């Protein structure tokens, strides 16, 4: 069956996805990759690694993170059977082809399923009160082991920064300001990038991580320092007098030409938000288009 524009045959699509499930390893250990842009929970993996598209991201976006881990344990034959069942469900009109829209809907389904599943699991773990609400004191004790204030000398002092950040998230997620979170509010607490009223919190946390001089902005050097660990592998890739690999130079250009809108050499809060939670970019549509394109290149 022929592929055209925004559709592809089931056979070709299954072969492309099967390849993703078999090549599930990054060139860089996960701990060395910084996740900043919030990809609407499509994957815990970086979309790009050192300027290259990351197959692990495609793997998670299509299967879901937990199912992706399950596939890692299956034999190639079992993987093919499981994939055939998934692909058949994606082809809703049963015409033997996968359209970009059908693929987008699959990715959105995986995204929503992850958020619901993650919230359900965490909600059960924290054992909410009989009225189906969760208090801050209960959350703090369950998460950090204590519910006293993190003052110097207290058992929670080593967690002071994390407790402060979680408390700020909590207060913003508490829409009705009753001091406790219901399950919907707890979802916003766990996944702030999904809620409009939580965007400022995501920006705050990003600034705290990257803004080392505390001036309320992210300079070009702070931006580069955050994404580039300057490790030995990168030194091997370095090919200019600054000792920077090509992908780092590309990030400098991205910062100057696209992220720094007013060209003042730094990112303000508005520019940071547009970087990490872009409003005019549909991640599920982009990933669907990418997978379709991959089928054209591999089919």
TrEMBL record:
Which InterPro entries would you find in this protein's record? EF-hand-dom_pair, EF_Hand_1_Ca_BS, EF_hand_dom
Location(s), subcellular? Endoplasmic reticulum lumen
Q: Which residues form the EF-hand domain?
A: 78-113, 161-196, 198-233, 260-282
Cellular component, GO, one term: endoplasmic reticulum lumen
Q: Which residues form the signal peptide?
A: 1-25
In residue numbers, the region (Disordered) covers 226-268
Q: Where is the composition biased (Basic and acidic residues)?
A: 244-268
Q: Which SUPFAM superfamilies match?
A: EF-hand
Pfam families per the UniProt record, alphabetical: EF-hand_5, EF-hand_7
Chain intervals with Acidic residues compositional bias: 226-243
Q: Name one GO biological process term.
A: protein transport
- What is this protein for, i.e. what is its function? Probable molecular chaperone assisting protein biosynthesis and transport in the endoplasmic reticulum. Required for the proper biosynthesis and transport of pulmonary surfactant-associated protein A/SP-A, pulmonary surfactant-associated protein D/SP-D and the lipid transporter ABCA3. By regulating both the proper expression and the degradation through the endoplasmic reticulum-associated protein degradation pathway of these proteins plays a crucial role in pulmonary surfactant homeostasis. Has an anti-fibrotic activity by negatively regulating the secretion of type I and type III collagens.
Quote the protein name from its UniProt record: Reticulocalbin-3
């Amino acid at each position: 069956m022929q592929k055209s524009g925004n559709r592809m045959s089931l056979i070709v699509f299954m072969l492309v996805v099967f390849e993703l499930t078999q090549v599930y390893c990054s060139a860089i250990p996960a701990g060395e990759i910084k996740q900043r842009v919030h990809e609407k929970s499509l994957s815990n993996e970086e979309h790009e690694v050192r300027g290259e598209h990351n197959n692990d991201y495609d793997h998670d976006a299509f299967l879901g993170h937990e199912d992706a881990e399950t596939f890692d344990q299956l034999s190639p034959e079992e993987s093919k059977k499981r994939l055939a069942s998934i692909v058949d469900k994606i082809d809703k009109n049963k015409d033997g082809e996968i359209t970009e829209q059908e693929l987008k809907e699959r990715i959105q389904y995986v995204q929503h399923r992850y958020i619901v599943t993650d919230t359900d699991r965490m909600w059960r773990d924290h054992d909410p009160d009989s009225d189906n609400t969760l208090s801050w004191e209960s959350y703090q004790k369950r998460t950090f082991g204590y519910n006293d204030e993190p003052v110097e000398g207290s058992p929670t002092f080593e967690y002071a920064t994390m407790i402060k950040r979680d408390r700020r998230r909590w207060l913003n997620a508490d829409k009705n300001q009753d001091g406790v979170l219901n399950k919907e509010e707890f979802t916003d607490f766990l996944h702030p990038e999904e809620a409009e009223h939580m965007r400022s919190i995501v920006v705050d946390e990003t600034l705290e991580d990257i803004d080392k001089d505390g001036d309320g902005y992210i300079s070009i050097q702070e931006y580069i320092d955050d994404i580039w660990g300057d490790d030995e592998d990168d030194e091997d890739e370095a090919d200019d007098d600054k000792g920077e690999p090509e992908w780092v130079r590309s990030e400098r250009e991205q910062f100057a030409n696209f992220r720094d809108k007013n060209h003042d050499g730094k990112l303000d809060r508005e520019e940071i938000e547009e970087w990490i939670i872009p409003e005019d970019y549909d991640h599920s549509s982009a990933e669907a288009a990418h997978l379709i394109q991959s089928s054209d290149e591999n089919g």
